[in-house]
Predict the structure.
Amino acid sequence: MTIKKTYPKILLLIFSSSVFFIFLYTALFYYTTQVEQQVYSDSKYHFQNEVNKLFDLDSKPIRVAINNDTNWDEFVDFFKTKDSVWYTGTIGNELEIYNADYLGAYDKDGNFVIRASSKKIKAKDIIPKQAITNFKRGGLSKFFIQLPQGIVEVIGASVHHSDDPLKVRTKPYGYFFVARLLDTNFINELGLLTNSEIVFSQEVKETEIGKHKIFASIDLADCQGKTITRLLFSRKFDVYFDHTINILYVIILAFIINLVINLMMTRKWLYFPLELMTRVLETGNKKAIKELKSISGEFSHIGNLFEENSNQKIELIKAKIKAEEGDRLKASFLANLSHEIRTPMNAINGFTDLLINTKLDENEKLEYLKVIDKSGRNLVSIIDDLIEMSKIDSNQIKPNYTTLDLESCISELFETIRITIPKTKNIDFKLIETKNPVAYNIITDEVKLKQVLVNLVNNAIKFTEEGHVAFGYEVDDENEKIVFKIKDTGLGIDEDNHKHIFDRFKRVESDVSIKVGGLGLGLAISKAYVEMMGGTITLESKVEKGSVFSFSIPLQYDMVQKIIVQPINSKRTIKGEEDGTILIAEDDNLNFLLFQKIMQLKNYNIIRAVNGLEAVEICHNNPSIDLVLMDIKMPIMNGFEALEKIKAIRPELIIIAQTAYSSNEDEEKIYKAGFYGYITKPIKRERLFEIIDDVFQNKNKS
Ligand code: ADP
């Protein structure tokens, strides 16, 4: 079996090294006890030898003396004479020489003859018959007997003539016994001699080993060789291993404590963080990341990395959701776009076909043409929105601040929008009265501000069938901003859609929004414009109750210019047309045809140039030209280059740009280049005449 996880691997390592060390300690322990036993038994053996020898040595003088006395002829004679005087005077005096307590003589038949004794042994005949029988043939014997006074050591010998020193040739004449009481004195002396403590004991207690003593014993046997008691010698046993073993115990204890600490710490420092890491990786648990961060060292760093990673993951998920939402929106946008373009195109194609191929009265024709016109304008507004959005996306749009009379602007807007409200709708459309109106002209981007207001008010009207639609503004002096509010009592927007309603291409999918159409760009463009001007836009809305869109822009007064209140719907008066020559630089035949047809309504002389170069040449060769309508995008030479060249030849000539581009930036570029003005395609008749009239009027004045 292979262990794959780190923590069990480390545990295995700790356990295997522990087992190894425990084995070593056990071996050391075993070896120590073995050595201890060996040393003990060696010491005991030597002690026993020593005791044996010393005990033997102790009785040696007696044996020597007894040998002498028992080969003494006079002693032989004594057994014949039984002369007690001689015995007492001669042998009896040797009590001290023998250092004995009893000197007894027995005849050859083992009968007691005489004895000389110390006070310690009172009895006369103490030697058992058996003892004499045992060595009747002669020689020396040693044995012990038990007397009431204590244990007595007896050494006996047969008595022979001096010519039989080995006591083998002749029969014994008698027997001589030397006895001494093994009393306390004897024991003490022997103790000193053997450097040990001596007691009479029947057995050796091996348990005494533990008490650091070694023991030796000498059996004291009677004449029949039967042990009657034993002398037990004990001596301090200095070589012992208690400390070594105690140290070993301490080492083992320390080792076990160390093992437990190791296990605990490994758990704390390794298992716990690893487990946290696993939890983080499996579940992304934030609490686990926090705990991991709180551990000092590498794991804290890993915790930080996990946190970063988790944040990035969240960001990625958000981005993914956003991207998916974007994809979804784009898909629905394309479907909408297709629908929005096809609907007017269908009307244009259908009614054009009817106009061409059917017989119609004048009223019908007019009706159809109005439809075609409206459809065309719708298409243009869709394209305008798309271009605007893409410019916002690529940061091409910058706010263009000018001075603005806000009151007039609001009134104008109100009037302009009011007349567009379909008669079918039962809407009470009004301005919200301002409590705190602006004191001066303000500085803002007029075009964008108007655009936002138009978008929001048009939406309010679009999504309200009956009820109220109102808009207005309030000055917030304290926060230095102007807050606009657009209120309606229409369809409303449900809570879920509030968050995303300002996203591009976002529409609330409902029957009404399908019916009224739209690409879902209006609010996105409005939001972008408001933010561009330094404000914010918000929404409060309830389904079926209505909506309130609020947006703010920074309040900045233009103190110099006083408010000039213009009358609502003030328009320049169109003066009568003047004859003149107009050069139309236009590469597209259909567009030129449209120009031609429009111009037929007036009395102007029209000349055409199909590119910029031709326009320059015509201007050069034809001084009667009063006005140039210059297309910007043309082959060979574009409108800007042609303008430059014409201005070089005829600086006073009025040149008006006609362009399909429509933004503020384009306008700025056109004026910067030196054009007198511009008209956007598709060309609106009224606007064209307004500009031309303006030019000729000014010309005539000068
Ligand atoms: P569109 O040009 O398609 O109308 P907008 O961005 O202006 O796009 O509006 C997006 C969506 O917001 C609309 O389709 C509509 O569902 C919802 N909406 C906007 N204004 C209102 C309003 N005043 N009342 C109800 N719904 C609205």
